[in-house]
Amino acid sequence: MVKRHYGFLGKRMNVSMGAGGILRQGVNNSEGYVDHVNGGLGFTFGGEFTIGRINVSYDYMPGFVLGQNVEGPRFFSGSGVSLRYVVWQRKGKARETLKKLAFWKKKKK
């Protein structure tokens, strides 16, 4: 699937949309082997917000199974919430401005 992020209300908040091909497999519960595999179309919609070094995101992923012999529902959906740690921070204009205004951290001569 291909996903694209769009900035929303600054650099710290993003919304995302995407689509692509998917494979959905069915498992026979009594014996544990893959019973069937069907192709389909999947979509994803989401948003994320970063506070300091913590990133919180939510994704909603609906899908549609294509083909003739489809077992189970053709339409399905899933969702997920993730919490991530930002290892490398970007340099921003606000951060640089605050560093310049920090009068208590003047360099000694």
The portion of residues assigned to helices is under 10%
Radius of gyration: 22 Å
Structural class: mainly beta
**Morphology call:** elongated
Reported for the largest beta sheet, the result is: 5 strands, antiparallel
Give me the oligomer status.
single chain
Describe it:
The chain has 109 residues and is mainly beta. It has one helix spanning 93-101, and strands at 2-7, 13-27, 34-51, 54-65, 75-85. Strand 2 and strand 3 (34-51) form a beta hairpin. The chain contains one helix and five strands; from the N terminus they run βββββα. Helix content is 8%, strand content 57%. The mean pLDDT is 82.
Question: Which descriptors apply to this entry?
Answer:
109 residues; mainly beta; 5-stranded antiparallel sheet; 1 helix; 5 strands
